[in-house]
Amino acid sequence: MIRSSIKIRAKIKNGITTVKALISHPMETGLRKDRKTGQPIPAKFISNVKCVSNEKVLLNSQWGVAVAKNPYVSFKYTGGSIGDIIKVSWLDNTNQSDSIEAKVK
Amino acid sequence: MPLNKQFNKDVCRNLFAKDSRRLFLKRTLNSATITLAVSSGLLLPIQAIAAWNEVAFAATNLQTAIKSVLGTDLSRASDKISIKIPDIIENGAIVPVTVSSTLKEVSTITLFSEKNTAPLVAQFELDKDCIAFISTRIKMSQTSNVIAIVTARGNNYSARKKVKVTIGGCGD
User: Fold this and answer.
1) How many domains, in total, are found in chain A?
2) Which residues of B touch A37 (CB under 8 A)?
3) B13, B47, B123, B150: which one has the fewest Cβ atoms less than 10 Å from its Cβ?
4) Interface probe, candidates A48, A55, A63, A84, chain B, greatest B C-beta count within 10 A
5) What is chain A's mean pLDDT, rounded?
6) In a domain, A52, yes or no
């Protein structure tokens, strides 16, 4: 099995679920140049990140190139319960995408 | 001799036929994999509804960026938004940012880095169950303000924090 590009952790504490996701992605701005050839490195960045739990979109975000390499995002919500499945997915400007599911602990 | 030539031709044709059949098979297989990926939900769901505000992300000026992402450049400064960033950043390529707010019914949090080539960093749409909290890492090209605009009940509230960047994180 191919290892997912996303690491995700969702934990409940005092009724608040904290979701933390770490995505491995170059987040290339398109402004950088290759040091050896001087050619610009084409942009490759995540444009959309979505987080869904119980068929409800909790977080829907649009990203630009200014999100750091290997992006990290964390958010909190109420109303989650232990064992809920939480799904995080991303899509980049080259139409590549990935997603992962995890259980709320 | 001519017979031999004819034979060679036939062999050739056969070989080509085989090749093209192989190619055809390969192509069908490839498209089959794609269909499989789509139907198993690997590709489709996010692409089908993905929206990306190209104009706003391409804007090179803060005002234009704010206006094209939020529809208006009016926002009220609010002390109910807190931006947590270190005052001095050594490496502009990784700037940890945490935005939280005590405002009620927050629907979106939008982040800007004032002097980046493209000031709009990201926009987060939150569900009503979400707490007004986002933590992420951004890039900053140089010392400037980080601006967070929080939309709550259709109104925009903003907060800014100045961050000193020692080495920029955009380009080389």
Assistant:
1) 1
2) none
3) B13
4) A63
5) 87
6) yes
